[in-house]
Write a structure and sequence with these properties.
Elements: H1 2-29, E1 35-38, E2 41-44, H2 45-69, H3 74-104
Antiparallel strand pairs: 1-2
Helix pairs in contact: 1-2, 1-3, 2-3
Amino acid sequence: MVALTYIGDALWVVALTIMFSASRQAWSRTRPGEKLRLPLGEIGRGLGIWALPGAAFAFSLWLAMQAREQAAAADLAVIVFGVRAVAAPLLALLHLRWLKAAMDGRPDA
């Protein structure tokens, strides 16, 4: 079951790489102090671009710790792997949609 832990780690590395790369590109396309328009309302540049990747990173660390604690119990290891395998791409897709909405709502977009 240790293999599931490493596969889950790899999935999260790919998802976080996509999220941070997209955030870096969005950061370079926006000006300091610029507000981003999202369906939730206007939000500051830093929070709008970096909040979700930062929260996803913290969540991935927590899930990694859970995976290592449950590696001995086969049933729980598979469940934790399933959560990790589903959460990583879903959060990456959510972040990409969030950034698209933010960048499309800009006045000079």
